[in-house]
Amino acid sequence: IRSFNYDAMDPASGSALFWFVRNSLFFELKLNERPDVLLVSYDSFVLDPDGNMRAVCEHIGFPWSPHLTAHVAPRAPGNPKPLALKPEIRRLCNELQDRLTAAEQGGREQGVGR
């Protein structure tokens, strides 16, 4: 992170690097090892709002109700045009996204409340 030239960085790469730093905390703080943490991505949530909200409610011991997601329209993740990022930043973000996706899937496979 310190090796990047921030003065020469474009806004998209700067934003992506911020995303990387912020989301890296999930692993640095070992949140992936805590049974009281349930990782749910935005894309997963909007794909199946009811199913994901049920999982969140079960995880925290809160009763699920349809009104919790009544305002969320299920939709498939979009396929946005890729941002023009510095290659090293794209690599960092892609690797972290893969780790986050694997952690989210692993949490689902282990079951809510692990």
Query: What percent of residues are in strands?
Result: under 5%
Total number of domains = 1
Mean pLDDT: 89
User: What share of the residues lie within helices?
Assistant: 40-55%
Low-confidence stretches: none
**How many individual helices?**
4
Order of secondary-structure elements: HHHH
Largest sheet: none
What's the number of extended β-strand segments?
0
What form results from the Cα inertia axes? globular
Alpha carbon gyration radius: 17 Å
Secondary structure class reads: mainly alpha
N/C terminus separation = 33 Å
How would you describe what is shown here?
This protein has 114 residues and is an all-alpha fold. The chain has one domain. The protein is built from 4 helices and no strands. The model has no long low-confidence stretch (mean pLDDT 89). Helices cover 53% and strands 0% of the residues.
What's the SSE blueprint?
Elements: H1 11-28, H2 42-47, H3 49-60, H4 87-110
Helix pairs in contact: 1-4
Quick take:
The protein is mainly alpha-helical. The protein has helices at 11-28, 42-47, 49-60, 87-110.
Keywords:
0% strand; single chain; mainly alpha; 114 residues; globular
